[in-house]
């Protein structure tokens, strides 16, 4: 309940007034039949019009009070549950934003979407039902049972015989439904994962004409969700007929017993009418309570899934930072006997005993075969992952001692996957600097050669981009991402194969601009093309997670066989 405590305090009036008004409505539920019975037995039987009118007025007033109680009770229940859900959704989203890459790897994208939407909605629905019925139903149940015994203890005994059987049936349904709801939500995760992957990669699917294959795959997952949903929800379907059976059986027994008493004159018709109404109210209250518990079972499954996010241990935090106020000023980088693996149960490291020293302002190239650990190496500088052994130092300080914000504010990275967001080009560039003006955008786009195509757009910087920048070419996306990174004015700039989609002439132009405009910035460029790093102050050659050699192009050509192999293979092409 800790995660709900703040919301309960903030919106306490909703959680108090909602049940209060529902109790008022419930009180009217068992008062009305009593007044109606008196009208029939005393007023109608004796022909006393004044008595009938008086009780009719009381019934009208009770109905108005019940109406007001129901309306206000529903309003506060909806208001409170909606605000609780909004707060929970915000907390969950905020926690996801603190996740490191390794934390995100523990959850699929579809699962996170399901948890922050559908699972929170289940808790919202349960809270609303709870506020409307947690006190109303017990009050109605106790009141109706009390009035039943007051009218006829003999008939009330029939109800006491039926209630335990109905309660046992409800308990069985709840115990059966609980694990099925968990399975249903897991199947919903799988469906959302499939939808996310399919829509994101729609262009690839169409280019390979794989629409039918994707339809079949989606159909299979959809059927699994349908089967799990039916298995879970049929417990709720059973609730209504079982309750109806209990009502009908009890009503028959009551009518049978009461009919004989009416015939001998020991019971009046109005009393029987009121008793049957109370019987219906008792079983309705039980039915509503059972529905609350069943919804609670589903909400509990959703709550556990949300708790997995909120209680997830974030492995990259500032809690151990010893120099949180320190800024990155020079951009000097040093790797000291660094080893790292993504999955801690794996025996083999992705990086093994890496030692490096990069001076401030140096232009450093990083090359190596696919899977050699190039991207992992630069991820450790930004502390997107933590090392298992050794240390990564920036300006002589372990990156684990920096504040994550201060470290990453002074470092800019353009990852292999170029991500742009829906909105204008200007809005995307301002991710690097929210207050940047046109002059600063021109500067960054000129260096990245993005100005060449931006000028060709009628709306320039106000050109609207589709999600992911889908209406741009690969090279255009890369150049915009480089410009966005430059807007941060970093001390360390990392380009992870971020010019692979541009031609060699543009690539060379970008590198020259970087050298000219950012002389004091440490620049690390991961490249597949040797031509992109030939002029680097230092080239790092990675092979199977280890440093094969470091040096200038001329030095590596003399003594590093893996580097020569890459160079000549590209020269032949």
From TrEMBL:
Residues 16-298 form the ABC transmembrane type-1 domain. It is found in: Cell membrane. The chain crosses the membrane at residues 12-35, 55-78, 130-149, 155-174, 236-257, 269-294. The keyword Transmembrane applies. PROSITE patterns: ABC_TM1F, ABC_TRANSPORTER_1, ABC_TRANSPORTER_2. One of its GO terms (cellular component) is plasma membrane. It comes from the Bacteria. Residues 333-569 form the ABC transporter domain. GO terms for molecular function: ABC-type oligopeptide transporter activity; ATP binding; ATP hydrolysis activity. It is a multi-pass membrane protein. Keywords: ATP-binding, Cell membrane, Membrane, Nucleotide-binding, Transmembrane, Transmembrane helix, Transport. It holds the Pfam family ABC_membrane. InterPro entries: AAA+_ATPase, ABC1_TM_dom, ABC1_TM_sf, ABC_transporter-like_ATP-bd, ABC_transporter-like_CS, P-loop_NTPase, Type_1_exporter. This is ABC transporter ATP-binding protein/permease. It comes from Candidatus Enterocloster faecavium. The lineage of its organism: Bacteria, Bacillati, Bacillota, Clostridia, Lachnospirales.
């Amino acid at each position: 309940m800790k995660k709900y405590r703040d919301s309960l305090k903030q919106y306490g009036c909703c959680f108090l007034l909602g049940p209060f008004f529902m109790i008022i409505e419930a009180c009217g539920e068992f008062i009305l039949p009593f007044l109606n019975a008196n009208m029939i037995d005393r007023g109608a039987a004796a022909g006393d019009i004044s008595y009938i009118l008086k009780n009719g007025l009381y019934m009208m007033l009770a109905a108005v009070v019940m109406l007001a109680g129901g309306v206000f009770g529903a309003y506060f229940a909806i208001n409170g549950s909606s605000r609780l859900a909004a707060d929970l959704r915000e907390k969950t989203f905020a926690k996801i934003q603190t996740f490191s890459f390794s934390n995100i790897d523990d959850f699929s994208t579809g699962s996170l979407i399901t948890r922050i939407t559908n699972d929170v909605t289940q808790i919202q629905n349960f809270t609303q039902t709870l506020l409307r019925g947690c006190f109303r139903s017990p009050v109605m149940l106790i009141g109706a049972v009390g009035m039943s015994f007051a009218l006829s203890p003999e008939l009330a005994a029939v109800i006491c015989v039926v209630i335990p059987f109905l309660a046992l049936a409800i308990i069985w349904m709840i115990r059966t439904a609980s694990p099925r709801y968990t399975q249903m939500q897991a199947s919903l995760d799988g469906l959302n994962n499939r939808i996310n992957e399919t829509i994101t990669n729609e262009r690839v699917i169409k280019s390979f004409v794989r629409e039918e294959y994707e339809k079949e795959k989606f159909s299979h997952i959809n059927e699994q969700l349908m089967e799990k949903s039916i298995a879970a929800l049929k417990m709720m379907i059973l609730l209504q007929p079982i309750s109806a059976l209990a009502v009908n059986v009890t009503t028959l027994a009551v009518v049978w017993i009461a009919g004989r008493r009416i015939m001998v004159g020991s019971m009046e018709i109005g009393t029987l009418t009121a008793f049957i109404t109370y019987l219906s109210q008792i079983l309705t209250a039980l039915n509503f309570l059972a529905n609350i518990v069943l919804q609670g079972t589903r909400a509990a499954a959703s709550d556990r899934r949300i708790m997995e996010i909120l209680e997830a241990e974030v492995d990259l935090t500032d809690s151990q930072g010893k120099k949180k106020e320190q800024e990155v000023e020079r951009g000097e980088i040093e790797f000291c006997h660094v080893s790292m693996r993504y999955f801690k149960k794996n025996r083999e490291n992705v990086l093994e005993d890496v030692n490096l020293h990069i001076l401030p302002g140096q232009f450093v190239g990083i090359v190596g075969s696919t899977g050699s650990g190039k991207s992992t190496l630069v991820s450790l500088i930004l502390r997107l992952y933590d090392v298992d052994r050794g240390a990564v130092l920036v300006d002589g300080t372990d990156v684990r001692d920096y504040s994550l914000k201060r470290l990453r504010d002074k470092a800019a990275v353009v990852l292999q996957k170029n991500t742009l967001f829906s909105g204008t080009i200007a809005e995307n560039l301002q991710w690097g600097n929210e207050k940047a003006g046109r002059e600063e955008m021109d500067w960054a786009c000129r260096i990245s050669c993005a100005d060449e195509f931006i000028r060709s757009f009628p709306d320039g910087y106000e050109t609207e981009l589709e999600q992911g920048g889908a209406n741009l070419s690969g090279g255009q996306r890369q150049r915009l991402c480089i410009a966005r990174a430059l807007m941060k004015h970093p001390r360390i700039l990392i380009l992870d194969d971020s010019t692979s989609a541009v031609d060699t002439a543009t690539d060379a132009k970008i590198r020259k601009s970087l050298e000219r405009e950012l002389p004091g910035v440490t620049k690390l460029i991961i490249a597949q093309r040797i031509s992109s790093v030939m002029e680097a102050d230092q080239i790092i050659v990675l092979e199977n997670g280890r440093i094969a050699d470091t040096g200038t192009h001329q030095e590596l050509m003399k003594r590093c066989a893996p580097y020569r192999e890459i160079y000549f293979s590209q020269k032949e092409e």
